[in-house]
Input
Amino acid sequence: MERFDVNSCNRVSDWLRSSVKKIVIIPHVNPDGDAIGSSLGLNDILLNAGFESHVIVPNDFPTYLNWLGSDGIPLIYEHDTAKCNLLIDQADTLFFLDFNDLKRLGKIEAYLRANQTPVILIDHHPDPQIKAEYQFSDTDVSSTAELVYDFIEAVGLLKHIGTIGANALLAGIIADTGSFSHNAFRHSTYRIAGELINRGAEKERINESLFNNFSEKRMRLLGYCLSEKMEVFPQYRSALIWLTTKELKQYDFHPGDIEGFVNYPLSINGVVFSAFFMEKNGVVKVSFRSKGSFSTNEFSGAHFNGGGHRNASGGEIKLPMAEAVALFKSLLPDYAFKLAQS
Ligand code: 5GP
Ligand code: MN
Output
């Protein structure tokens, strides 16, 4: 409750009770565990509370998250565009979850630009650039899923959390914190995780599905990355792994397979900044992670058209892989001081 001001909670609460009948929930493109978990969790709670609610994700997501949804939940915009557009047109409230800029909506962006439907934004990224009727944005939180729990509590809908909602929200928290290993130092995260377990969340099942559910090829791809493709730059306390489309094909790549690869170099003593580059649809998609004060979102925003959080960010650049890699290496000397301080 303390996280949000009481007035806006009361107004949202009144809003939900009065005019709202049809809700559409939308998370960011290339949705990860937190985007999917927070959206499906909120959706289930709203359905239980008697609202008509749908989740529309911009594009495909990793199959190991499928069990958090069910038939037709969520809808995928790229596969079901006409139906999704109709639901967006009919909605009287949109929830935007886990992103701070419409640019993060992939193909939905163009359709939503002209949309005037009231938006409730729930997010934990810095500097939201979205015009929202109600904004619940807090960077001091482990995950959007945790913020959704706060929101649900603040607007008096807690009693509608069942096993599906509890599993989805706890999966979001566990995914964004790497099972409580990063950005998970606040009491509130554990209190909420405990509440979700009380309401039926299955922690073991979530852990198994998120972390112990990969193909043999994915494991070998990880081995290949670490033994053949990781470059370490000790003088800059940094490391880089990069993969071409050809290499991805060789290892029968599926979305989600490279989830977490970018974190591995950070377990090398002295490395505080890790980058992972991958060819995707004609661009190089980049991921950055850091330990300590080094702002990967500033680095990503300044050089790779991206953003995110201080210690976890991403972006993309339209360059051949060799040039993207050369650019990254050429930038490190400029950041030597900040990297030494991190
Ligand atoms: P990941 O490296 O797991 O793809 O993303 C890490 C974080 O960076 C996430 O919080 C995500 O929201 C953000 N992020 C990833 N890709 C992009 C991007 O292309 N643009 C922006 N602004 N943020 C991104
Ligand atoms: Mn998140």
Q: What stands out?
A: The two ends are 34 Å apart (CA to CA). The chain has two domains: 6-211, 216-341.
